[in-house]
Amino acid sequence: MLSKLDVYLNGKFLPLAEAKISVLDRGFLFADGVYEVIPAYGGKLFRLQQHLDRLNSSLAAIRMEPVMSDSQWADVLNKLVEPHAQSDQSVYVQVTRGSGSSRDHQLPDDYTPTTFAMCQTIATNSLDSIAKGIHAITLDDIRWDWCHIKSVALLGNILLKQQASDQHCTEAILLRDGFATEGSASNLFIVSNEQLITPPKSHNLLPGITRDLVLELAIKDGVRCIEQEISEQQLFDADEIWLTSSTKEIMPVIELNRQAVGNGQPGKLWEKISTRYSQFKTQLRNQQHD
Ligand SMILES: Cc1ncc(COP(=O)(O)O)c(C=O)c1O
Questions:
Q1: Where does the chain hold its CATH 3.20.10.10 domain(s)?
Q2: Which residue among 206, 250, 277 is best mutated to probe the pocket of ligand 1, counting the most ligand atoms within 8 A of its Cβ?
Q3: Can you give the pTM of this predicted structure?
Q4: Hey, which of 6, 63, 107, 145 has its CA 20 to 30 A from 225?
């Protein structure tokens, strides 16, 4: 049985304190790498295939090959979460282009990737407090143009989130050319005239796994869903605003730029779809392992 401190690094399971990488690692020097965050409920990885597909498309976008097969990933990640099956976990996976013999911007012809994974407990009390509704602000998106890549270069996201936090808000909703694209660490939905609207996938936003599941659940429930650009005005006029991510799930925004959204409470459609989301998680928890 693995100890709770075990992490995975380049083919080995190790105690956290023994997991070491070179200071010449390109992930450290250039943020030359990509990552995933995968929840696990009752020891079962949530939407693993979708996360692995996105990992591989992020790798392809930065000109890297897949580091292992999907079944090898499943094996590694299941070994990490199994000892923690009694609590909800988020598994962090990071792959970088590894280290060369010196610091050099040029992509190496040959490289040995650094592959790392660890898990940590998802705090359920933070989810309970999110369900009461969060406050958000709008900010100009100062990030680069390839936001579809789940890059470890998160300084833009971090500084934007900090600006929100400085104003006692949980998230920043980002604006690009007059349109709201996503949150600093989440995807965006609005409810307007009983329609659920989310921006289409593009280079302006991360193709969120939670986003896709929310759309699936809403469509199944007969909700009218459209993937369409959301103007700044539409955002301010929305009846409901939601922000979604793997670890924060579906966050109802009850205040935007200090103004109440709708009646200032989590909306009716949010209640319905977040219930469906919880049921989906419960089903996964209760599934038998293969
Ligand atoms: C910028 C950004 N957009 C969207 C998301 C939501 O993605 P997912 O639902 O796959 O967690 C995240 C998650 O971290 C994110 O960082």
A1: 127-284
A2: 206
A3: 0.96
A4: 145
Q: What is the DSSP letter of 123?
A: -
User: Which among 176, 246, 247, 280 is the best mutation to test ligand 1's pocket, defined by most ligand atoms within 8 Å of the CB?
Assistant: 246
- Residue tagged active-site, from 150, 220, 268, 281: 150
Distances in whole angstroms, Cα of residue 122 to Cα of each of 24, 79, 100, 154, 159: 32, 18, 35, 21, 23
Pocket lining: 151 vs ligand 1, CB cutoff 6 Å:
no
Structure tokens at 206: 């991360």
Q: Give the DSSP per-residue string, 125-186.
A: HHHHHHTT-EEEEEEE--S-S-TTS-BS--HHHHHHHHHHHHTT-SEEEEEETTEEEEETTE
Find the mean pLDDT for residues 40-65.
97
Convert the pLDDT of each residue in 226-254 to its tens digit.
999 999 999 999 999 999 999 999 999 99
Ligand 1 and 207: CB distance under 6 A: no
**What is the tens place of the pLDDT at every residue in 127-177?**
889 999 999 999 999 999 999 999 999 999 999 999 999 999 999 999 999
Answer whether 187 contacts ligand 1 (Cβ < 6 A).
yes
- Cα–Cα distance between 196 and 198 in angstroms, integer? 7
Please check whether the domain covering 127-284 is classified as CATH 3.20.10.10.
yes
- Tell me, yes or no, if 150 is annotated catalytic: yes
Smallest CA separation from ligand 1 atom 5, residue = 186
| Per-residue tokens: 238 | 């929305």
Closest residue to atom 7 of ligand 1, CA basis: 208
* Architecture of the domain made up of 6-122: 2-Layer Sandwich (3.30)
